[in-house]
Amino acid sequence: MSSVLLPSSHSLTVSARIQDRLDRGELTPQQVDEFQDFLHQVEREFLQHRIITANAYTAWFRTGQASDVELRHFIRQFSVFSNQFLVAALLKVINSPTLQQSRASREILLNELGVIYRKLDGSVDASAKSDEEKDREGDPEFVSTTGTVDGGICRFRAAHFEWLTAVAEGLGLHYEDIGQRKHGTATTLYFCDELQRLYGSDDPNIAEGASFAVENWAAAGFWQELEDGLTRIKQTRHPQLRLAFFTWHNRVEAQHAGHTLEELEAVYFQPGFERAKFIQGGQEILNAIAVFWDGLESDRQHRIGL
Question: Looking at the record's lineage, which domain of life comes first (predicted)?
Fold first, then answer.
């Protein structure tokens, strides 16, 4: 089972996979100790980054007090990030240094585009779900939170951007109003460009650091804050609001984080791994993430774009 990294008071420790390699003599005690030291550095410099531990915008959003105008601004900016992420994800696939890493990257990209995860045990969710359950948990016809895209089915309506479009429709926005660069503010576009430069970098060490930071940022709680705020708004003002985009991501991001930890374990002990570049990639993408959220907070405070 993959370890999931979350900001907490507990230090990161080597996984059972690394312990097994040590027991088999594939790694020396010194190598494992150095890897543990590296994980401690990752925890300090990535998982304790202030945009993970203290995001002012999502903390406010969680209260459910966003006005309709503020909601539309948020959805428009988030849609630009979500859609432009596809470019960075494709660059990550293209620049993957190994076939295994290419496949791991394609798992994320193809699922974003609408390939449904196929459960590895071959089971299907045959239970009948109400419309409310489908919105909260995802329609089993179009989504799954576990498995692999290998052998999965592609459906247009399973594309993540189509789910986000459904959220936007409930607020009076339409497909043509969201997702394109022309809809982004300067801070949103800066984040998108940094995603391409770092997450999609052709330097594998920079890309690995950025990927690890992005996936663990996504698993660290901001999706829950967004879901909490939107759920309150749906309950009090907009019962028609469709939240599957946010509820599904809140449930699935831990799987992505697990993939990146396994990938890190695989590359760390390979020749050519550069610890400093890995840390650089992660720090720079987290700073770019902070620019995005700080931009939304500044827009809110100064009523820019509202």
Answer: Bacteria
CA distance 268 to 272: 9
pLDDT digits (tens, 9 = 90+) for 48-88: 999 999 999 999 999 999 999 999 999 999 999 999 999 99
Number of Cβ within a 10 Å radius of residue 115:
21
Tell me the CATH number for domain 49-302. 1.20.910.10
Task: Tokens for 139, please give them.
Answer: 């329609």
pLDDT tens sequence across 20-53 = 999 999 999 999 999 999 999 999 999 999 999 9
CB contact at 8 A, 270 and 286: no
Contact (Cβ atoms closer than 8 angstroms) between residue 192 and residue 181:
yes
